[in-house]
Fold these 2 entries.
Entry 1:
Amino acid sequence: QKEVEQDPGPLSVPEGAIVSLNCTYSNSAFQYFMWYRQYSRKGPELLMYTYSSGNKEDGRFTAQVDKSSKYISLFIRDSQPSDSATYLCAMRSGTYKYIFGTGTRLKVLA
Amino acid sequence: NAGVMQNPRHLVRRRGQEARLRCSPMKGHSHVYWYRQLPEEGLKFMVYLQKENIIDESGMPKERFSAEFPKEGPSILRIQQVVRGDSAAYFCASSPGQGAGEQYFGPGTRLTVT
């Protein structure tokens, strides 16, 4: 079993929809959770960073962490075609090692 | 506010040649990570370095691959005697310190071995 599981998609939604992206994990020691956006042939761009459980909001993006269920989510409100990309979750424990999901491909249709 | 810089962006090597990839971390960052990404796959950790120290190279093949982060200058990922299977995108990321949460990535170097 992988430490971090992420549905690869692709996920296609109409413009303006609310998008929900998710990751599950198995290591209860993970404390730091990140979401990255990666456009084709570009480097990952950090979108959200959260510590422990709870919600964090930044503009149209909301990150949720549920440590009891070992489940994290990224919500994108009012999705735009420019949001079309691969979204990677990442997490780490108290050490330096980051574990990444394989990414979910999102396509927002105009 | 320069981000993480990598060069070259694209590198073509013939089998058996050496590939040298460079990474300059963000200003104020002294920790560098190297990752490899194959199409449709996630980022695979290769090596973690601080200035003049290799902290963890457990993700890097023991043969042909080496990395350094000298006191002055960029971090270098070196692949000797490249083979077709080395073709991939190699990303560098930096963070301000061990235990600091965020990692910031460079644009990557796409290595093609012919």
Note: The mean pLDDT of chain A is 93.
Entry 2:
Amino acid sequence: DQQVKQNSPSLSVQEGRISILNCDYTNSMFDYFLWYKKYPAEGPTFLISISSIKDKNEDGRFTVFLNKSAKHLSLHIVPSQPGDSAVYFCAASVRAGGTSYGKLTFGQGTILTVHP
Amino acid sequence: EAQVTQNPRYLITVTGKKLTVTCSQNMNHEYMSWYRQDPGLGLRQIYYSMNVEVTDKGDVPEGYKVSRKEKRNFPLILESPSPNQTSLYFCASSLYPPPGGEQYFGPGTRLTVT
């Protein structure tokens, strides 16, 4: 049972345009969400995160939006650059006190390709 | 340099032959975790450890064992590997458990079981 889903396996965008990567979750206990970026032959690296008490978090060109009622989050990259081409994973966790504290649940990943 | 190291990076083995993938971090992190990455399934957590001698099952622990006898090391043990454990494995560590700490991932170990 996939509790975190990224339904788009791939996304292709022109350099300079906006990239929007989507993620849905089913477990209402999740209260913290993260995005990781992965280049080939490397481990994932942390990109940006958001707590369930917020609906938006911004860090430079990267913005994450959270819609709790829809159990949906999205990562916006503006403007997109060729170096952003990678696999993007969203992940969800429960903060301290929850029975699943310490677990991190990932989605399937979306391959982003930014064309020059 | 702060890093998570895994060994070996590549391994081809046969069904039933016990193997260990080592993971070591030099950042004095409390939390360590193992994941496997498979096409269409993303990253799935196998086991995690909050601290020395404290380990817990992730979402796919069957067929794996771990131990945490020292803070820096968190080996993954496959007692009797099977072909369905062919995968790309990542070890990660963070100062605090997620989401409190940013996780640092190792470079990955590609395992093939024939």
Note: Chain A touches chain B at residues 2, 4, 6, 9, 32, 34, 41-46, 49, 51, 89, 91, 93, 95-96, 101-109 (CB under 8 Å).
